[in-house]
Amino acid sequence: MFDRDGELLGILFLVEAPGRGQRRICAPVFSDEHKKEVFKALRRDFARWGVTRYAFAAESWRSENGEKKGLRPSEDPERREIVCVGATDGRSGIAGMRDIHRPQYGKPSLGKLKLEAETRGTQGPLLALLHPRLASQLPDDERTVFVTDVPGSPIQAMGSRDPTTGELCLYAIIRGAQRDDAPPGVEIVTGPEAEDLIRQIQLTDPTLNLH
Predict the structure, then answer these.
(1) Integer Cα distance of 63 and 85 in angstroms
(2) E strands of the chain, at which residues?
(3) Across-strand partners of 55?
């Protein structure tokens, strides 16, 4: 795509689910706020499809000293334009980058792929899409507590709902909890939303056999 168009439009994914093979996804991103919604939708769809591993590619900015200057990478005059790539199976991941060269005259091109060391767990939002968001990422004064109620599941999830995006953020896993166990004022989450969160937990930790 880059060789043809000189750019990547959106975030490109190659995802894989057992028994369903692979599929390609192009997720357009128009702003930081839109990115949050895109990641929320991807987490939901990955859980619904049963995705166990994926790779991605996206254009980005790289700034070596931007944080020291108090600048975002896109605001640093010395920034580098890159294509970042990565892959994860939810337990370990690997990421890298290719510099984008845009000459004044001539065709844009990509530099050599530079891979970073393999990481355990996840790193950054793009390498965390197989994991539920954590309630610890929310401000303390913006939390509403929920507990899931999924019939037939030996566990239920407890956490907080993001007041901005409505996303369910995980705090704890409760074994054997049922609807009647929830204290007053706690939201009971049922249906596809709760089922998707339980599936995400299962993908994160396959030792929790929920079926």
Answers:
(1) 16
(2) 11-17, 21-27, 53-62, 80-88, 92-101, 109-110, 114-115, 119-120, 145-148, 155-161, 168-175, 187-189
(3) 14, 87
27-63: pLDDT as tens digits: 998 887 888 889 989 988 998 898 999 999 999 988 8
DSSP element (H, E) containing 197? helix 191-204
Q: Which two tokens stand for residue 102?
A: 């845009």
Query: What phi, psi does 37 have (nearest 5°)?
Result: -65, -40
Over residues 60-90, the pLDDT tens digits come to 988 877 666 777 777 788 888 999 999 998 8
Distance of alpha carbon 44 from alpha carbon 52, whole angstroms: 13
For 107-136, give the DSSP string: --EE---EEPPPEES--TGGG-TTSPPBGG
CA 59 distance to own-chain centroid: 16
Q: What predicted TM-score, i.e. pTM, was given to this entire model? A: 0.75
Tracing tokens 């605001």 back to the chain, one arrives at 75
Token code pair at residue 208: 């929790």
Structure tokens belonging to residue 36: 């949050």
First to last CA, the chain: 40
Candidates 211, 2, 206, 6; CA nearest to 106 is 6
d(CA 187, CA 201): 19
Contact (CB, 8 A) for 189 and 171: no
Q: DSSP character for 134?
A: B
Copy the structure tokens of residue 110: 């990509």
Of 44, 209, 33, 22, the closest CA to residue 131 belongs to 44
